Give the backbone structure.
Amino acid sequence: MFHRLINSLRRKRLDAGIEAEIEFHRSHSSGSFGNVTAIREQMRDASTLVWLETWLQDIRYGWRTLLRTPGVSAIAVLSLALGIGANAAIFSLVDHVILSFLPVKEPQRLVLFNWVQPYHRFKEFRERSKVFSGLAGTVSLAGVGFNGSDSPENSLTGRLVSGNYFNVLGVPPLTGRALTDADDSGMGAHPEIVISYALWQTRFHGDPSIVGQSVRLGAGRIDSGWNTAGFEEDKPVVPAGRDFVIVGVMPPNFIGETVGERPDFWAPLTMEEQFMPGRHWLSRPSAQWVQIIARLAPGYNRKQAEAATNILSLQLWREEKGGSLSPAALRELEQESKVELLDGGKGFSGLRESFEKPLWVLMGMVGVVLLIACTNLANLLLARGTARRREISTRLALGVARSRLVRQLITESFLLALAGALLSVPIGWFASRALFVMVSAGNSSLALNLAPDARVLLFTGAVTILTTLLFGLVPALRTTRVDLQSVLKESERSTANRGSRVTGEKAVMVIQVALSTVLSFGMALFTRTLYNLHVQDLGYSPERLVTARIDPIGAGYKGNDVGEVAQRVLEKLRAVPGITAASYSDNGLFADRESGNTIRVNGFVPATAKDSHARFDQVGPGYFSTVGIRLIMGRDFADTDRANAPRVTVINETMARFYFGKRNPLGQTIFYGDQPEIALTIVGVAKDVRDHLVRDEPHRRFYVSYMQAVDGQMGADYELRSAVAPAILDRQIREAVHSVSPLLTVEFVQALEKSIDNSLLRERLIARLSILFGLLSLLLGCAGLFGITAYSVGRRTREIGIRVALGGQARSVVWLIVSETLLMVACGLAVGIPVALLLTRYLRSLLFGLTPADGWSILGVIVSVGLMALLASIVPARRVTRIDPVTALRTE
Amino acid sequence: MPRDALQGTLDLLILETLARGTQHGHGITCYILAASNQQLRVEEGSLYPALRRMESDGLIKAEWKQSDNNRRARYYQLTKKGAQRLARQMQKWEEHSAAMKTFLEFA
């Protein structure tokens, strides 16, 4: 084998040796030698790697053939590169967000609790679960001040974790040690952290003596989970900012348990107070904030563990409730305490939850784009093959094996695909970056390692091979399946059987038009969805509304003082020139925060527990007039709705209808909560609004005065009406807040429209990309139709010449050509529209304001595809009218 | 005779010839002719491709040397692998001819 390789590479030497050997024999023997040429060839074949030589020959020949038509080859390579690159980019995202396992030990054995738990219950789960080899709790921390600075650029993100966290994940530290259970004991007793590799390199410059160094960390924000504030008890507030000792560094690719996060450090859960002073979440039973990730004990699977965990969960809830329970209450408790265990191998990912379906849809779309590019190439090769018919038949007649010819033709397509694949690498890289920017817009802490890994490269390679086969094999087989006699005998003059021989290309064209139709339909649906979301009436006008969030609790205010300081800030803000109206609220608008509780109404009998539940917000004076929510009856909140004034509430339309039907709710009382119940008098009814998601149907909602809070406040979101740009207002707002108290920090200042846009990120992404792919597919389809029509005209030049010479009108000849194209397009539409309707049924959840069988979209698709057909056939059609019959008759 | 049997026979002839001494291609034809009492004449068209094939397969190795009449010739000699193949082929041949003999005498 090796011997043969050497001979293949040193051909001259081999040939000389063979010649010499033959010569020697002839010099000795007098007789005939036989067929010298054949013997020489056989000797050569027996000495070399035949397959390698033929393959190299094919490559050289194919390369020359492609270079003969550089323009067409370049377009082919480019469209392939775009198709493969786009596929690789989207697959890369799909891989990282949806498919990849966490870089931890045995990720398949990890499970997640589907809902956050309060700290005391988390500890119970940890102690008493028998089905897990380890159960860890974690929560994310954002905006942590670093070494005294509290500017947003310098802040860190981190995670609070239980002692056994690193054990459960099974990843040892790079240097130093990880946190242990001992570090997680005693509230605030162990100011120790483990830092990430990235932090070590950037902020500490890879200092080798990092272990043991100290760093000052300030307050942070816990954003995840469902947090209720409850009320402040009289506990001292620990000031933010404390020295932490670094005990270890984690390896470079360790990101923890959440995809898309890049924590800079990990600190014990028991240090919560240091980061969120005044919240006391470690000891507050109603605060639900701990995310739980656990490793299954050997011998248990997820289902078994889930069953066992639900039993334990019910037990814990019963112990918390205390006393005996009626069977009905017990059943309700069972429902409430239900815990679902999710597969944890891929970690938590808010990104995955939002983007999983859109990403798969995009993956499908981009695959179709590649398919269309491949069909264009297939047609190209078919057309070229038809032109080379005589050459191929001659070779076949000379005895070349058909497989050899097929192999050579496939090598040509393989060269195209290879060139396309190589070019697709930089294209794919850029596309990944752009995609990442689109996906992370509005979320600056998102971090994904999108470097191409083995899987993405493997995917690209597989796609390349598949495309080669797809557009290479069929043309190669068809081209070499020729009836030798008829081809060799005929000249180009004969026009017999012309139409049928083009059927292959026409069928492919119909498929291509169908595919373009499907993509264009998707484009229409998603664009309309985005439009519908943008123009959806929210119940108020978001223009010129700016939101600014402050944290009075973090600054140390408690109880009624929170409301007082919020009022003082309000008065200062009202005085800022440029702000025409101001108010504030606990949960804000489009701020991802909400509150809810049980409500009792006299005379209303709830059918289920859910009927007693309503959402609410705690708002400042003039809230409704500032935001622009119409009051159907009654009044807005006023400065007089202070701490010791009679407790009032404003309910929304839905709630009024639900609890009071046709009765006038004004003056009626509703009772909030349980033990103790708080009586609230209804003083107004407000219009239903959309305040969290544009898609949301309004729920039952009521509003209470911030100063008469029924639940502890989380913070204060100011809603400000101003024509001034938020960037300019920013400074004035911060000054105003600061003048009330230097401890108060402004977390952000943002136009409400921007917050709404951010909430529509998913829809914007899919709309943008579907437009890109839809237009691309129409462009490719247009190019394909153009090519095939032009080619058809070229081959029928003679026939057209005859028709014109015999007195045919130019118009009727043009119609002949155009009608062919229109027929293909009509067939394509006939196939494509039903297929599109079938596929888009699965998109229902991604659409808004329209059904998948949207009439306008169908119309739009027909029009755009028709336009594409027209464009494609115009130039060839005009060329037809310019055919000079005399020249045409003479063409071969 | 079927093609591979023919090839096998030729291989056996060549290997046995070379086992008795290094030879060039012409010499091998002469030796086989002589040793078989003019019964077996190997065609050049079969011999030289076979020699090249066996060389590629590592059964024999070749060297350019000065021949008796002072011309350059390609001399072939048996390798260890070739000797093993020869032994195996010989055994198979003997088994085969013994079987044929038994059959023909059975009548």
The longest strand of chain B covers residues 60-66. The mean pLDDT of chain B is 88.
